[in-house]
Automatic annotation (TrEMBL), chains A, B:
Reactions that this protein is recorded to catalyse: 1-(5-phospho-beta-D-ribosyl)-5'-AMP + H2O = 1-(5-phospho-beta-D-ribosyl)-5-[(5-phospho-beta-D-ribosylamino)methylideneamino]imidazole-4-carboxamide; 1-(5-phospho-beta-D-ribosyl)-ATP + H2O = 1-(5-phospho-beta-D-ribosyl)-5'-AMP + diphosphate + H(+)
Amino-acid positions noted as binding Mg(2+) in the UniProt annotation, renumbered to this chain: D82, D84, D86
Name recorded for this polypeptide: Phosphoribosyl-AMP cyclohydrolase
NCBIfam families reported in the protein's UniProt record: PRK00051.1 (NF000768)
GO terms, biological process: L-histidine biosynthetic process
GO cellular component: cytoplasm
Residues reported in the UniProt entry to bind Zn(2+): C83, C99, C106
Main location: cytoplasm
Lineage, highest ranks first: Bacteria, Pseudomonadati, Pseudomonadota, Alphaproteobacteria, Sphingomonadales
Cofactors (names): Zn(2+); Mg(2+)
Length: 124, 124
């Protein structure tokens, strides 16, 4: 682990070979995990400039603002970075369900030891 | 988005080209984000079988049990999977600081809009 990375007060994101970092999105009020996405340098800049969470879609290979079609945008409250600066935490206020399935969180299924998934009432 | 993936009750993790999924680790009691790591099929299986969180280290190219050197293991309370099954949530009880820096969480720095990082008292 690079000490220069984990104690510096300079934001120097460590992008992967595709130019991306992992972005973890939590509800700023409840703390609950909402979704995981990816950000490139443009997504980070736009999120900081506008206060609306932007991501990079690996499947569509394009920048997108969360909520641009669904209306369920995410307003940034705080951005954090992890020790080795390859993952970001976005603490947000969601305008609606964060998951494309209409659920509050993308993490609505529990992995059981027999390889099945169950759907707890609490969706995160 | 593949509907078969987001509504199925079968655990079919979508590994990337390197055979990995993203693993987000939160404190099962506080809900706070502790760390982000990667898991391959072996790490998932060992975590399920032993109840101790295992990950794949991309830098060392090896499987590791969190806490095997530090003593700060993570006991699994619940595993969840996201809608497209390429990210896992591990809700855990940590035996000590999750971050190699000795902090409770790896997300101890706030990203400011001027490109600086600050160190809030609350480390997650």
């Amino acid at each position: 682990m690079d000490r220069a990375s984990d104690e510096t007060d300079r934001f120097l994101p460590r992008f992967d070979a595709a130019g991306l970092v992992t972005a973890i999105v939590t509800d700023a009020d409840s703390g609950g995990l909402l979704m995981v996405a990816h950000m490139n340098a443009d997504a980070i800049r736009l999120t900081q400039q506008t206060g609306a969470a932007h991501f990079w879609s690996r499947s569509r290979r394009s920048l997108w603002r969360k909520g641009e079609t669904s209306g369920n945008g995410l307003t940034l409250v705080e951005m954090r970075v992890d020790c080795d600066q390859d993952a970001l935490l976005l603490r947000v206020r969601p305008a609606g369900p964060a998951c494309h399935t209409g659920r509050r969180s993308c993490f609505y299924r529990r992995v059981e030891t027999d390889g099945s998934l169950t759907f707890p009432d609490d969706d995160a």
